[in-house]
Amino acid sequence: MAIGGAVTTGRKARWALVDVIVVVYALFPVLWIVSLSFKSKETLSDGNFIPREWTFQNYADIFATNEFIRPLINSLGISIIATLIAVILGMMAAYAIARLDFPGKKLLVGISLLIAMFPQISLVTPLFNIERELGLFDTWPGLILPYITFALPLAIYTLSAFFREIPWELEKAAKMDGATPGQAFRRVIAPLAAPGVFTTAILVFIFCWNDFLFAISLTSTEASRTVPAALSFFTGTSQFEDPTGTISAAAVVITIPIILFVLFFQRRIVAGLTSGAVKG
Amino acid sequence: MSHAVTEAPAKPAPAKGKPALSEGKRAERRLGLLLCAPAAIVMIAVTGYPIAYSIWLSLQRYDLRFPDERQFVGFENYVAVLSNSYWWTAFGTTMFLTVVSVAIELVLGMALALVMHRTLVGRGLVRTVTLIPYGIVTVVAAFSWFYAWTPETGYLANALAGESAPLTQQWPSLWLIILAEVWKTTPFMALLLMAGLALVPDDLLKAASMDGANAWQRFTKVMVPVMKPAILVALLFRTLDAFRIFDNIFVLTNGANDTSSVSMQTYNNLIKGLNLGIGSTMAVLIFITVAIIAFIFVKVFGTAAPGSDQGGRR
């Protein structure tokens, strides 16, 4: 493009080839686990990329036991609650950072940045003991709390980047018409900010949905174990059966929400991830 | 740190010396503090206190299997960890994984960013599929790689590794961990770089090509300098993130054959060993290492902290 030549078919073809490479790169491991999940027990170890015999047995198996359903409920519940709380708190803080002048603003931004880069394992050790003493160990709140904490920096960054894009003047106009800053926030900015808030919610949800370290360290039973943590405890239908098929099926199930988000909100996710990083 | 913030909301608005603030300005400050308080309190409560607590724990002999022997031992745990070869092996492994995977990600990520930014066909498609590795649960991807490289179930092990089982040997395992890590996180790197790429003015590239710069020169002399801040931020994020590698190793090798990272070691001491003293010591050491890495990035390379347009950029 920079050379200014016309867009020839040859160049298009070359880009198409590059695109294909990217697509193969991105999908290969995903397709492999999908393939495993549809293989029957007999063909599981044939090493074929495409199953020779297709079966839904693995899916039927995982949905027949609490071993998967309970963690799935935990995953959904914990991620959704943590996302809601983190986005609401993040929204308030981001609004203040983007719009208001107050002391301690830089400090808050600095702390968020510190937490975003903080090694999570360093928190696992003390949290493990604190939560045991408080009775939060192996409960939903025991996971929701650290998730909110680590999601907040992400939420604050992304949201404040979005909030800076919102036209100032509307808020001023609202204030001129006699609205307090609080009213300006609720009535004018909040509706305008909805797309950014939604995008942030997706990013935060993906983060919570993904977590493994907290999930495996701060839980011990099915009461609060999420799917990523539960996967490594899978045993298959009986204890002596190889769990490859069931693990694959469960892995595919928890990948579905991610695929849906990506398919429907690609543009927003890209905008959300890039806006926070550059405009800051 | 926690002190400063808990105090902040209590600090009254009037500024010393300056003329008294108008009513509106004061209301703005009050609202600002009020809106930030919940987020700040949660973040401080869940990180500030545990950090202090883990420093305290690291100075004690505290094993949950022998709770009666709990005792203040000063720096004994640090001596124990730092003179332990397992710790240094894990530290070396973690450093190796971090440096190699971030280096590969930078190159691949830049290529991917260029593709996403410039491709003439299927831009939406490329961006969509690129987000899949970013979004997918790390453990899921790790299981996929695990099965792919396990001889009984894997197409890759059968096709490429012959009779051997790569995940049972140290070096093949390390490279496979890097592969899994690179696959998963290159898209994130690419997105951060693409944001930087969008800042490179097209005119500048056109002017450079008029002056006879070839594609490589345009890349190194025009794009990279303009993108430098974005590149440094991406590197900083990814380096600190790579340093805490856990999920991939847990699934792929579970730390066997000296493939354990510092996070794995800490986890093993804590959850399997129930040794809070040693676990906390490792946690503190990891924290210090991460602080040093961040410090180097910010001071030596001049990485600007993103997110603070007033103060962060130098």
What is the element layout, followed by pairings?
The complex is a heterodimer of chains A (280) and B (314).
Chain A: H1 9-38, H2 57-64, H3 66-99, H4 105-117, H5 120-134, H6 140-165, H7 168-176, H8 181-210, H9 213-217, H10 227-231, H11 244-278
Chain B: H1 2-7, H2 23-58, E1 60-61, E2 71-72, H3 76-82, H4 85-118, H5 123-135, H6 138-149, H7 155-160, H8 170-197, H9 202-210, H10 215-243, H11 247-252, H12 262-272, H13 276-300
Antiparallel strand pairs in B: 1-2
Largest sheet of chain A: none
> What fraction strand of chain A?
under 5%
Broad shape of chain A? globular
Continuous helix count of chain A: 11
User: Residue ranges of chain A: pLDDT <50 for 5 or more in a row?
Assistant: none
Overall outline of chain B:
globular
Oligomer: heterodimer
Question: What attributes does this structure have?
Answer:
heterodimer, A: 280 residues, mainly alpha, MetI-like fold, 2 domains, 11 helices, 75% helix, B: 314 residues, two-stranded antiparallel ribbon, globular, disordered N terminus, disordered C terminus, MetI-like (chain B), transmembrane helix (chain B), Sugar ABC transporter permease (chain B)
